[in-house]
UniProtKB/TrEMBL annotation:
EC number(s) stated in the UniProt entry for this protein: 3.4.-.-
Transmembrane segments: none
Keywords: Dipeptidase, Hydrolase, Protease
The family this protein is said to belong to: Belongs to the peptidase C69 family.
Catalytic reaction annotation: an L-aminoacyl-L-amino acid + H2O = 2 an L-alpha-amino acid
UniProt cross-references to InterPro entries, sorted A to Z: Peptidase_C69
Protein name: Dipeptidase
Amino acid sequence: MKKISMIGMLIFAFLIINQQVSNGCTNFLITKGASVDGSVMITYAADSHTLYGELYYQPAQDHPEGAMRKIYEWDTGTYLGEIPQPAHTYSVVGNMNEFQLAIAETTFGGRSELSSQAGAIMDYGSLIYVALQRAKTAREAIDVMTDLVEKYGYYSSGESFSISDPNEAWILELIGKGEGEKGAVWVAMRIPDGYISGHANQARITTFPLDDKENCVYAKDVISFAREKGWYDGPNKDFSFSDVYAPVDFGGARFCDARVWAGFNMVASGMEKYTEYAKGIVEHGGEHNFPTNRMPLWIKPDRKLDVQDVMGMMRDHFEGTELDMTQDLGAGPYKLPYRWRGLTWEVDSVQYCNERAISTQQTGFSFVTQSRSWLPDPIGGILWFGVDDAYSTCYAPMYCGITEIPECFAVGNGDMLTFSETAAFWTFSQVANMAYLRYDDMIKDVQVVQSELEDKFVSYVPVIDKAAEILYKEKGDAEARRFISEFSVNEANNMTKRWKELRNYLVVKYTDGNIKKEKDGQFERTETGMPASPIFAGYPEWWYRAIVNATGDHFKVIGSSH
């Protein structure tokens, strides 16, 4: 590692620390032309150490004239103010409403002087859930969200939003104007059909077309505001939203955009030319220069993707790349692709970092949404919902028109400080945390059940779609919703029951660091019915060598042994 000046080290540390505040989520966007069946998909992982995995639900409602909606900051629950309710609001399941509109987000932070705004009451989370209650399409949602921040101010730091409907996928990037100002500056771009995009806590929109309202809309002062602040003095056509309002630094590349690179790398060739960027390597040297070989906002995948491909994009630890988290000493003897936080650490006054992969241990919940234009709205939208670590979760299909939430996902069924035997989050967390102890063996058992369930769900959905569509046409909306609600509730609760069986199986199989022998799907017994002697798997040879290299003759056996 090259020596750098003390000032350079302080700047580096400051930037790393700032990035740790906003490295929580990952989104991918898949357009109709990039999916196997013509559905539009977006993904989200809510990666917070304090966020519980539960499925929010808000029924459709009529509101009397003068009704108000209270606004609470999504992350802290702080009361911010209230806004008028419209005459009618739509039903919302998680991050998808009954018209197949879906919204997800990642926080990029951006310029610190723009992070607070006195009197503002619309935070990023409230923008999402208010828009889902009021908009039917992605374009309408963009209008609702930007109108709200203009009228009521923007309470949060910089944010990237994924917004999709049955026909389009958009990225909206927005940051407040800071103290003494009101509202936000923003740009929204439609992802071209046939392409995919992604963002992960780093602003991704750079230059954008100024005269293509069909595919790009923006705040009227997005450029002039930057000029007034002295942050930009070039021609309008060269203005880059990210470079001005949220410049990429080491953390933005290594901890954030590297996740986008990893997801793209799973489905598209040619991403190796961005490897150095993903690693946060400075191209031109000097302590104030940061990576410049930025990835495009969207790419064309090598083939069209189905919903399980997209689930797979959310299950990545940089496998097969230079950042592969299973290959360095930190993975331990069983190739664990997780590192306990903090994100950075120090040895002999030199700072180092852990990788920040798409799949991470602190996830509260994650999802993949499907919006399908060929079906009636309540049936066409599916929120594939999973709790805890995305790599070891199971995504259950929650139709957007359901009117009931499964007990296993219900709000109030446990929380991060309250264990619940019927909550999916705690059941999945138990399995994941057990697997962390002997990962390369246990995860294979987990994946067998994961595939068993998700393959079943995927095979069931077309049949449920057809039956629900017939009910919708012949018996009406209410009967179709009852049917899809029953399906979604039963499958999620049965999935959780099956995961408890998996938990019990892992306890028996891997007790005390041993591995029970199996034959024909049963644990082996001797002829007299006693448990067969287990496999004493020990540790891999390379791990023993690492111990000897670190301890010398400390563990060496002296003399003969019996």
